Amino acid sequence: MTQMNGPYVMLAPIQLKDGLGEKALIEASDAFQTHFVSRQQGILKRLLLRAKDGSYADLVFFASKGAADRVVEAEKSSEACLDYFKVMDIPEDMSPEMGVMGFEQVKTYE
């Protein structure tokens, strides 16, 4: 299959640490947006989502797969990212990017 040019989307499931609620997630997400996301080139849009079961996800739209790769690499040394991850229940044997799904554009309908 050939790689398509265009937007790239990443979906990152979020499980909150026990005892933390949506308010803590939103505060951490707002700080992450201000101190990291807004400073990254290639991020088109970011949505914080809540499912009916109370779980959450970050949905991020990038200009390209290359832009997504650059941002993921920058996250590894970002204090703002580490602070955001502190509200999440991430098993010790997993890195935060495990479980993240990436999607290439196949076709756009408008």
Global mean pLDDT: 90
| Rounded radius of gyration (Å) | 14 Å
User: What is the general shape?
Assistant: globular
- Which stretches are low in confidence, meaning pLDDT under 50 for 5 or more residues running? none
Helical proportion, percent range: 25-40%
Distance between the termini: 24 Å
Q: Total helix count?
A: 3
**Helix/strand/pairing category:** alpha+beta
Describe the sheet with the most strands: 4 strands, antiparallel
Give the ordered list of helices and strands: EHEEHHE
List its traits.
4 strands; 3 helices; single chain; 110 residues; 4-stranded antiparallel beta sheet; alpha+beta
Description:
- With 110 residues, the protein is an alpha+beta fold.
- Helix content is 29%, strand content 24%.
- It contains 3 helices and 4 strands, in the order βαββααβ.
- A hairpin with a 5-residue loop joins strand 2 and strand 3.
- Helix 1 packs antiparallel against helix 3.
- The longest helix is centred in the N-terminal third of the chain and has 14 residues.
- The protein starts with 7 loop residues before the first strand and ends in a 6-residue tail after the last strand.
- The mean pLDDT is 90.
